[in-house]
Amino acid sequence: MQKRHSFDSSQVIYRAQELLDAASNRYRITVQVSNRAKRHRYEEFDSIDDPAMKPAIRAIIEMSDELTQPEIISDN
Questions:
Q1: Quick one: which of 5, 12, 36, 61 is 20 to 30 A from 30 by CA?
Q2: Which of 28, 16, 25, 18 is nearest to 58 (CA)?
Q3: Which residues 6+ apart lie within 8 Å of 74 measured at CB?
């Protein structure tokens, strides 16, 4: 049985809007999300951590987390 994540579509839309609001260039942030999703897609072939979450949704969630919680990507 597959485990479903608690992210609903309104939460993903809200996080995507946060990314777009914070970005100075909407095209650039869209390309960054796309590139990260593509990287996740290729990583899925090696390990099947969460097949229920699409790579684009995972990229949006990760990038919005990095935006709102910069301590998770700090070098400390």
A1: 5
A2: 16
A3: none
- Amino acid letter, 2: Q
What is the pLDDT of the chain when averaged over all its residues? 77
**Interval 47-59: pLDDT, tens:** 555 567 788 898 9
Do the Cβ atoms of 73 and 66 come closer than 8 Å?
Answer: yes
Between the alpha carbon of residue 35 and those of residues 2, 42, 71, the distances in Å are 26, 11, 23
**Predicted confidence (pLDDT) at residue 69 exceeds the cutoff of 80:** no
This prediction has a pTM of 0.71
Which residues are CB-neighbours of 2 under 8 A, at least 6 positions away? Answer: 51, 52
CA distance 21 to 12: 14
